[in-house]
Amino acid sequence: MKGFWHDAAEFFPILMNGVALTVIVTIGSLLLSTVLGLIWAMMRVSGIRALSMLSASLINVIRGIPIIVLLFYLYFVMPDLGVTLSALQAAILGLGIAYSAYQAENFRAGIEAIDKGQIEAAQSIGMGWWLTMRRVVLPQAVRIVLPPYGNVMIMMLKDSSQASTITVAELALQGKLIASSTFKNTSVFTLVALMYLTMSIPLILLVRHFEKRAGKK
């Protein structure tokens, strides 16, 4: 145990560089997936058949492609098509697109959970579709989707480790590099696991808080 703490003190500063990139990838992809997911969801519930079918098709395609394949495509294939992305850009874009499908389903479920009577009442006083969404539906839907949104945040934090496959030196890759050069696999990966757990626990508690609040309503 004494050896572990000695190794932890030695490797911790290096791994913190990986933590910084992990946070950047997670936040960037979370923001992108939120925006795209909301767009896909709004298309699904728009009542316009062409938009609804297009959104459903996009969601199915995105969900059917493994994240690692999407990352490889963005980083290794796109340059052949004339679009070159840095590893960090490809990681954020890939994870953001991948998770936008799950965000879309969460948002759609939240929107469809709103009482149709409220929508009809808003339209009866002259509100258009977009105004009804913005002032009546979305504020209530946000409260409904907060617990699953929190779960997406946790999964995205853990899946940010897949960015290591396209050379983003986030926490998982930093750990792998240290382990391969020092052969202290137990110490390094135990520390990496603890650091992921430390980042995840606040999110887990936040999700639990949202679930309790939702259960009281």
UniProtKB/TrEMBL annotation:
It is a multi-pass membrane protein. It comes from Bradyrhizobium manausense. This is Amino acid ABC transporter permease. The chain crosses the membrane at residues 20-41, 53-75, 81-102, 188-207. CDD domains: TM_PBP2. InterPro entries: AA_ABC_transptr_permease_3TM, ArtM/GltK/GlnP/TcyL/YhdX-like, MetI-like, MetI-like_sf. GO terms for biological process: amino acid transport. GO terms for cellular component: ATP-binding cassette (ABC) transporter complex. Pfam families: BPD_transp_1. It comes from the Bacteria. Residues 19-207 form the ABC transmembrane type-1 domain. PROSITE patterns: ABC_TM1 (PS50928). Keywords: Amino-acid transport, Cell membrane, Membrane, Transmembrane, Transmembrane helix, Transport.
